[in-house]
Structure formats: C-alpha cells, structure tokens
Write a structure and sequence with these properties.
Keywords: Signal
Number of strands: 16
Shape: globular
Protein name: Sigma E regulatory protein, MucB/RseB
Distance between the termini: 53 Å
Strand content: 35-45%
C-alpha cells in the first residue's frame, strides 16, 4: 500500500469506527419522548435491514476530486447490488471516468486490474495512453478509495457503509437524542430529532434526523463528525478532513419497506501538509426489484406477514 493509501485508510478507520448510541430523556411532545421515538425507529431499522436483503437494485454514483477550481478526477458508475446472506455483492455495470494527466483529460471505462497488475486501456482524444503509476494517478486512487469505502461496500445491503448513521438498536447505545419538534420533509410529517455521542470524547457522529410520524422511519438524516481528528494524529499523519459529514434520504418501496435512496457528502481532504483536495460524492439507489415476498413493515414498527404471490 502506498503511503497516501495508508493515510486514507487510517483516516477512514478513525471516522468509520464502530458507532453506538445511548438514548436520553427529552421533553415530551404529544406524549412522546425522543427516547420512545428512537426506540421504535430502532426496531423498524432492524427489520428494514432484513427486508432490504430481498431487493436487487442499481446504485448510480458520481465521485469527484478537485484541486481548487480544477477538476482532477471524476467517475460515474452504475453498479448492481445483490443481497448475499448478511451482506451484498456489487457488480459494476458501467464506469465513465476522466483523469487530469499532464494538463490533459484522459478517459477510462474500467477499474484498475487487481493487485496492481497493470492499468486498463484509456483514451485521450482517441489516442491510447498509458498512465504511469505515481502522482498522476493519486486523484483516481482517492476517488476509487472513497467510493469503495463509503458506498460500493459489499458489507452493506443498502449501498451505504455501515456505522455512518446511529439509528439501529445496535448503534443507539452510546448516543443521546433530543426532540426538537415537528416539521414536514419530503411530503412527510416528521419528528425532528437531534443526536450526539453521550461521551464527549467519542469519535462518532452528531447531527439531526427527520422521522416519519406514522411509520417511525427516517426520512432525512444529516451528520458531521462529533469531534475533529486529534491534533496529535493530524500532526503525525499530516492529515485533516474538515467538514466530513453525510446527508441521506430514505423513501418507502410499494410494500412499505424503507430504503436509502440518496446519499451525499462534500468535504476537504488535507494530506501530508501540502496536498489538498475537495471530495464530492453523490449516490442514488434506483431500479429496485424485489426477489421474493416475505413480510412488510407498517406504522409503529409492527411486522406483518404478506401473502405469497401465486
């Protein structure tokens, strides 16, 4: 692993460490507390994770790396996500990429060969061009690293890296929640919930969530890092990721199963004191196909059996 790749892996390991949450009491609204609301959300999210395993869908992703105003690299991909036991399999259907090399954009349509066994053919103004390993491919490494770690992740059934959002029962053990009120979001009447780690020294996420008042499912979740990477770590690695945070939208499928349908993040990456990039990720889940029918989720977190298709 090259030094930059090692640094990026370390940053992601710090920011994607297992996240847990603790519920705390909050002012009641219409007889409900943040604790009660999030307990029902946790039940529904646990059930939704199981139900999402019955879906095949396409994830459309666009990832860019910029240096100031200059686009250094961008990739647009379509991947088919198929459930496989507790995880999923992602098959790349299409890739359109371009990389700035020596003041000229080079296009490519394949991922690098495994274990660095050569590079795929590329096309620059209809001419073949081999990209040398080294600084010329750094931005492509960053784009593909971020996509594979945050969205193109085989360990997730919903196309989003696990541990980014403290909503399931497992991930609510160390977080505090506060009910801010109610507000409409994306056509849903929602509870507005604020959350942050109970331990102020915890490297988790803080942010807010809009929870549908009928189904007790998240409609919108926004997060930022609860703490910055420690100064000692930034000094040692020469790495900083100011503004790291995520926004995710959820929507129900026809059978009532809620799915993440949109994921986005935009943040700056500073590595080795002299290397600075702005990273933007936008992913959309679409073209859902249900593999078989077993059950569905209804309001309040109740699970009911659905009839099998004849």
């Amino acid at each position: 692993m090259r030094p930059l790749q090692l640094t990026l892996a370390t940053v992601l390991a710090c920011s994607l460490a297992p996240l847990t949450a603790q519920q705390s009491a909050a002012p009641a609204e219409q007889g409900l507390t943040a604790e009660a609301i999030m307990a029902r959300v946790a039940v529904n999210q646990d059930q939704s994770e199981t139900q999402r395993a019955h879906y095949v869908y396409v994830q459309h992703a666009h990832v860019t790396s910029r240096k100031g105003r200059t686009l250094m690299c961008e990739e647009t991909t379509d991947s088919r996500v198929t459930p496989s036991g507790k995880d999923s399999q992602q098959a790349l259907l299409k890739l359109d990429g371009r990389l700035l090399v020596k003041h000229k954009y080079v296009t490519y349509t394949q991922l690098p060969s495994p274990k660095g066994e050569g590079k795929p053919p590329v096309d620059a103004d209809h001419e073949s061009l081999t990209i040398d390993t080294g600084d010329d491919t750094t931005d492509r490494d960053i784009v593909e690293n971020m996509r594979s770690n945050l969205i193109a992740n085989d360990k997730s059934k919903d196309g989003i890296s696990k541990g980014l959002f403290p909503l399931t029962s497992k991930s609510q053990q160390d977080y505090q929640f506060k009910l801010l009120g109610r507000a409409p979001r994306n056509g849903h009447d929602c509870f507005h919930i604020e959350f942050h780690p109970k331990d102020k020294d915890d490297f988790g996420w803080k942010g807010d969530a809009y929870i549908d008042t009928v189904s007790y499912q998240p409609v919108l979740v926004r997060t930022v890092m609860a703490r910055n990477i420690p100064f000692a770590v930034r000094t040692l690695l020469g790495t900083s990721v100011p503004g790291l945070g995520f926004t995710i939208l959820y929507a129900p499928q026809p059978d009532g199963v809620w799915f993440p349908v949109s994921f986005g993040t935009e943040f700056k990456l500073h590595v080795l004191f002299f290397f600075s990039r702005e990273i933007v990720i936008d992913a959309q889940n679409r073209d859902f196909e249900k593999t078989h029918v077993s059950s569905k989720i209804i309001g309040g977190g109740d699970l009911v059996q659905a009839p099998e298709k004849p």
